[in-house]
Structures are given as C-alpha cells and as structure tokens.
Task: structure prediction
Amino acid sequence: MDRYDVIVIGGGIVGTAVLDRLARYELRALLVEKCDDVASFTTRANSGIVHAGYDCEPGTLKAKFNVLGNPLVWKEAEELDVPHLKCGSIVAAGEDGVSGLEELEKKAKANGVEVRLLSREETLGIEPNVADRISCSLYAPTAGVVSPYQMAIAYADRAILNGAKILLEAPVTAIKRSEGKYTICTPKGDFETSVVINCAGAHGAEINDLAGAEHFETTYRRGDYFVLDNTERKNVNTVIFPLPTAAGKGILVAPTADGNVIYGPTAVDTDDCEDTASTLDSLDALKKSVPLTYKRPAFNKCIRVYSGLRTLIEHDFVIGRSKIKDNFIMTIGICSPGLTSAPAIADEILSLTLESINAEKKKDYIINMPRHLRLKELSDEEIERLARSDSRWGRIVCRCEKVTEAEIIAAINSPLPATTVDAVKRRVRAGMGRCQGGFCGPRVIEILSRELNIPISEVKKGLGASIAPFRVKEVD
Ligand SMILES: Cc1cc2nc3c(=O)[nH]c(=O)nc-3n(C[C@H](O)[C@H](O)[C@H](O)COP(=O)(O)OP(=O)(O)OC[C@H]3O[C@@H](n4cnc5c(N)ncnc54)[C@H](O)[C@@H]3O)c2cc1C
Result:
C-alpha cells in the first residue's frame, strides 16, 4: 500500500489550494478526486468574483477568510498566470436602498474593507449602464473577477511541479483508522496516511461520516446563469450587485476574466447534492431581476446557461480539526465567498497540518509558473515567429476564441494533463465561444485521440460522458 503523510480529499479550489501549500514542504502529499479533472464541480460553476469582503457578517470565518483571501487571489493569479481583472464592484440601489447600503458600509468598516458610498453621478462614472432607478451605490475597489477553474487547475499544476501527486477518478469510498494511521479506500487502490484533509465540497459531510468525524446536516442552493457573448463585454465595466438578501448576494451582472459577461445566479433550494440543471422558472426569474440594476440586458446574446450548487452547513464555513478523530481536518460547507477565501483557508490548513507533522520547508519550490502562450495575447511578430518554428501555431482550431492546435497540445501535456474535451476547454477555452464547440469540437476530439493514442470512441467529453461511442458509417 502506498503511504503518504497527508491525503487531501477533493480537487476543487479549496483542495487544490491546500495541496499547493503542502507541496512547499517535505511532505508526501496526495490529492484524490472522484472526477476526471480537478475543478469539475462547484469550482467550475460560480460567478468568479473576487469579493472585497464588505458583506460577510463580522466575526465569522467567512469574513475572516474573505478579507485575508482577497489580496492573496490577486497576488497568486499573477504568479499562476491565471486570467483576472481587478475591476471593482458596486452594490447598486434605488432610493429605497440607501439604508441597506449604509448597513453594508458599517459591516465593511467592521471587516476592515475599503468601500465608498457613491451618488448616482459618481456611480455612472464607474458604470454608465446602471438602471435608471439606481440613485446610489457602494463601491468596493478591491473586488474583481478571476477564472475560478483556471485558478484551481493552476494550483494543481504548481503542486505537481513542486512534488505533490493527484489521483483522478478516485472517489473515496471508505476511510479506516488503525494504529494511528488512516487508510483511504478508492477504486484505484488503498492509501495510508497520517493526516486526512476533507475538501470534498458538496460531499464533505459524507466524507466526515465515512471517517466517523462530526456529523453535519447539509442543504443545497442552486444558482443559474446566462453567459453572454463577448460582444457584450464593452457594456459592463464592473461587477454590479443588487442589495444582498437572506438568500445570498443577489443576481449580479459582471464581466468574466475571459471577456464574456454573466447574469446570475438565482437561488433555488434543492435536496439534491448533484443538482446542476438550470430550469426555465429560474431563468425567467433571472430575466426579471437583471433590469433592476442594469439597463442594457441582452438576453438575445446569450451563448450558454449554466448552474452551480452552493453547499450550506449551518451559517458559516466549517474549518478546523475534528474533535472526535485525530489528525482529521475539515474544510467543508465552503459556499460563497469560498473562491476568494481559498488561498487563506489553505494557509490555515497548512498550519494545522504542520501541528500534526513536523516538516521542513523545501529549499526550492516553484512560485511563478511558466507563462502560458495564448494566441489572443501575442503580437503579430510573435505569432509569425512561433508559426515558422512550429506549424501547429498556424492552425487555429477554435475560431471563436482563437485557440491554436499548439495551445491544445500544451494543455494535454500540462503537469495535470487535460484528457477530456471539457478539460481542454477549461484550460485553453476551445469550445467556450459563440459556437460552443460546434466547429472545433470534432477537431479537439481528433487531437485528443491522436495525442493520447486512444481511439476516437474512447475520447470523453468529461465526467465520463462519451461523445462518439460508435461509428454510424464505415468508410473503406
Ligand atoms: C452559484 C455560486 C456562485 C458562487 N460565486 C462565488 C463568487 O463569485 N466568489 C466566491 O468567492 N465564491 C463563490 N462561490 C463559492 C465557491 O464557488 C465555492 O466556495 C467553491 O468553489 C467551493 O470549492 P470546494 O473546493 O469546497 O468544492 P468543489 O469545487 O465542489 O470541490 C469539491 C471536490 O470534491 C470532490 N469529491 C466529492 N466527493 C468526493 C469523494 N468521495 N472522493 C474524492 N473526491 C470527492 C468533487 O468531485 C469536487 O471536485 C459561488 C458558489 C456558487 C454555487
């Protein structure tokens, strides 16, 4: 049986950030993930907002880790070469919302977050397209957007380069404890470890139960979104929130780090921990809400809808050691602002781990990741130079997002290799554009088949889904 010092369960933004920290120490660290890629569940489908931290209840773990996490996300997105944009945010309100903004301002002060109350004229200076009814706003300059899945993938890549291991398609099915060690059982084998870190998101409470640690009741709340074509990006400068309600931060209008615009999320309570199917009712509610803060809704420019699942345990994050099981550490119930908080949570989990295991910091470890070459960001001279030395730079596979064959091959050969169409899409954006893979999908499948040396029928979309399971026509 393979032995590790630490096993992290779950490869969302929290698990990958934790692994990234562990990999800087002389520790044998493994992350086990049930899906065929990291960032395949909640981390894949959220708003991607780097929250400033003004709205979290002062004194909560959410407030603490949001405020600590915000500057870390900005710093680490640079180190990891992940798309991000510190565009600020506004909470936009009409006359009836002034007292709500003042309440938020008080919370911001208590949390130590910089905000400014703006008049309508000042708001228009930041966001000319707020709705006509908006009379004031609360501006938070430290907010912005980041690509959530690229952040998690980049943490995973950096952790691997620094010596950690990741095992995909390895759902944890049992956790046993004997002689001071844990055995983590998966269909890919059993692994022994001194410390277990539960980062299993929507399944976090189940993992606790498997280990015999504290039992938590979990509830779920789905959020649906519209994604708009990148032609809408010119109309949105900043993240526009309504006043928050008990159900959450409300339906926002925001640019994405990759140049689209999103409207969402809704808040639909559900019992199903895998519920990520948007419904018409919820999308209709979204259509009604967007014009309350934003005056140029363009639902006809929608290129996709998606939905993400919030995992709620009590009213705050659950972060810390189990009081029942030694060396079992939990970071569960990580709903919003979990993306923003992840690097700060990871620092906390590293400290807790080092209380259990003595480990030296490695003398050399990688902080600044090699820059990704992206056709969209290159000058004409650079493109010409690259295409002359490698013809794959001259072959554009995804026309909407301008992604070359060279970039797709780089993704397939990255530290955590992309082995499915969705994994390629999340790394280089092939299939994320207006045609949603209608043109480039078959080419991506061919490239995956060739590079992985597998038949086309074995190339998966992601999460095990087949795309072309059999031939309908044989050609001589
Ligand atoms: C609609 C919505 C909008 C949001 N917007 C924002 C935002 O704008 N800003 C922000 O800061 N936060 C936001 N959040 C919160 C943020 O997305 C989450 O806090 C974060 O993604 C949670 O990450 P995680 O790693 O805990 O969970 P996940 O990303 O779900 O990762 C958990 C992983 O564990 C794996 N797993 C589960 N069971 C097992 C098992 N048995 N064995 C092995 N692996 C297992 C899963 O496959 C999954 O990959 C939003 C959330 C939602 C739903």
Notes: The mean pLDDT is 96. Residues 9-15, 32-35, 40-43, 46-49, 51, 171-172, 199-203, 207, 223, 265, 308-310, 334-340 surround flavin-adenine dinucleotide (CB under 6 Å). The chain has three domains: 1-83+143-218+313-371, 89-141+220-306, 375-466. The two ends are 49 Å apart (CA to CA).
